[in-house]
Amino acid sequence: MNKLWSAICHHARVMPDKMAVQTFDAALQDALSWKQLKERVESMARRLREDEVRVLALQAGNVPAWVLTDIACALHDIVLLPLPGFFSAQQVLHALRSLRIDAVLTDQYEALVELTGEQFELAGELADLSYLLRSPQWQDAMDNAALIPPQTSKITFTSGSTGTPKGVCLSAAQMQAVTGSLLDATADCRIDRHLCVLPLATLLENVAGVHAPLRRGATVILAQESALGFNGASGFSLPTFLHALSVCRPGSMILIPQLLEALVMSCDAGWKLPETLQFIAVGGATVSPDLLSRAWAHGMPVYEGYGLSECGSVVCLNRPGARCNGSLGKVLPHTHVDIVDGEIVVTGPAFLGYVGERESWHTDDSARRVATGDLGRFDDDGYLFYQGRRKNVLVSSFGRNISPEWVEAELNAQAEIAGSVVYGDSRPYCVALITAVNPSLPNAALSAAVARANKRLPAYAQVRRWYRLPQPLTRGSGRDDDLLTSNGRPRREQIFQQFQQELEALYLSESLTEAI
């Protein structure tokens, strides 16, 4: 049973003229009522069914067409392949070549045609996007039955720690189970408007930012990146983001730690958070407990969570009445978590397998065991605490196990530090590569920031020396020399190899840094 579609039909019947989806630019403008949403989904679903589309790729920003397509595909069991906007051309091509795509909806028609050659033909527009169908002249021997598991509803590509993304196959039942748990966890919140800050192609925003609010009957507010202050390579405009919050007045939103830090700094400077906000979820990277405490001191209803694509996004979540600062929250009721040899292992509704990797396929998505590679522990009250990646844990020459993510979270919580990568395996102490928020920031300010972070760390995990990077690390674009993945996580081996001389010097002399 498609619970999302059932909810939309119900809302269209009992409140047909209320807003289901709104678009934010400089102000709240275009909108779809519940009745219009239902009608446009049905129209799109009919067109896709008529064209015998079985697998559809979607390449678009945060626009109503994305939501319409997502729901229409689920309505008629069409496999949806979202293409993230941050993917490089090579990564997009890799995703499109991983299985047989019948059609593409895109807001980048010319670039996609140039990339794919004659593989697709323009068939007009659908939901204000260019609609491309597979060219009859394009022949290949790809058989999707051999490439994706049965019951696949959506394929989310995740790059992990390499530049080549892997296709995670998800079932409708799995996503519905996650959505149901999220609704239960936030049942006491009066959320009537959700602002989508993350790209809709991000599974977390797709499930928690679209499916959950629509099932609840709340309005989903969509905005392109520029309207929220994200300007690609040119940076981020905090005033633009704050203006969007003031105009949209959402009840909930999902943030990455860097955006939460920007909000906290704005409140430190006197900015007032909209009183409509009931729930701010934060995740995607380790969050400093100090940053969370500062946020709550300003009255921000911030709740950290944990999840991964293979588990349909959210696994654990802090929530009203059940929050422990610094933890990932308690396990949601649809799933189960064990700690096995220090590793977080999730059992319950999980992914069906990876595209093209038949050995990974699992026919029963209701009882799959996923070893996450993350280290964690439970406290006596059932809160889960993240302790880093198993493969990233460094062991000092004194035999102390240290999670670099833990140390980096404290460094990155400092206003002067834009990013950091900690090193110290088999060494007497930790050192770090640090990126300043401003190229003109003096080293003394960075030194003071590191000192503040160290006060929150035990002696064995403190950063004794550091090297200031001349420029930010390159973000994932599919090349082997990228130093960050597409979602901003450090590719540690590549970083340590490129900065080997600088790191070695931190253990030989103090010429490249200031000792703490």
Offer a quick outline of the entry:
The protein is α/β, with parallel strands linked by helices and 516 residues long. The chain is 31% helix and 26% strand. The chain is built from 15 helices and 26 strands.
Keywords:
26 strands; 9-stranded mixed β-sheet; 2 domains; 31% helix; GMP Synthetase, Chain A, domain 3; 26% strand; alpha/beta; globular; 516 residues; Rossmann fold; 5-stranded mixed β-sheet
Question: How would you summarize the topology of this molecule?
Answer:
Elements: H1 3-14, E1 19-24, E2 28-33, H2 34-50, E3 55-59, H3 64-75, E4 79-82, H4 89-97, E5 103-106, H5 109-116, E6 120-126, E7 129-134, H6 144-147, E8 152-158, E9 166-171, H7 172-185, E10 193-195, H8 203-216, E11 219-223, H9 238-248, E12 252-255, H10 257-268, E13 279-282, H11 289-297, E14 302-308, E15 313-317, E16 330-331, E17 336-340, E18 343-348, E19 353-354, E20 368-378, E21 384-389, E22 394-395, E23 401-402, H12 404-412, E24 417-423, E25 430-436, H13 443-454, E26 463-468, H14 492-498, H15 500-508
Helix pairs in contact: 1-2, 1-8, 2-3, 7-8
Outline the structure in words:
This protein is an alpha/beta fold and 516 residues long. The chain folds into 2 domains: 3-385, 3-Layer(aba) Sandwich (Rossmann fold); 393-508, ANL, C-terminal domain (GMP Synthetase, Chain A, domain 3, 2-Layer Sandwich), CATH 3.30.300. Helices cover 31% and strands 26% of the residues. The model is unreliable at 510-516 (pLDDT under 50).
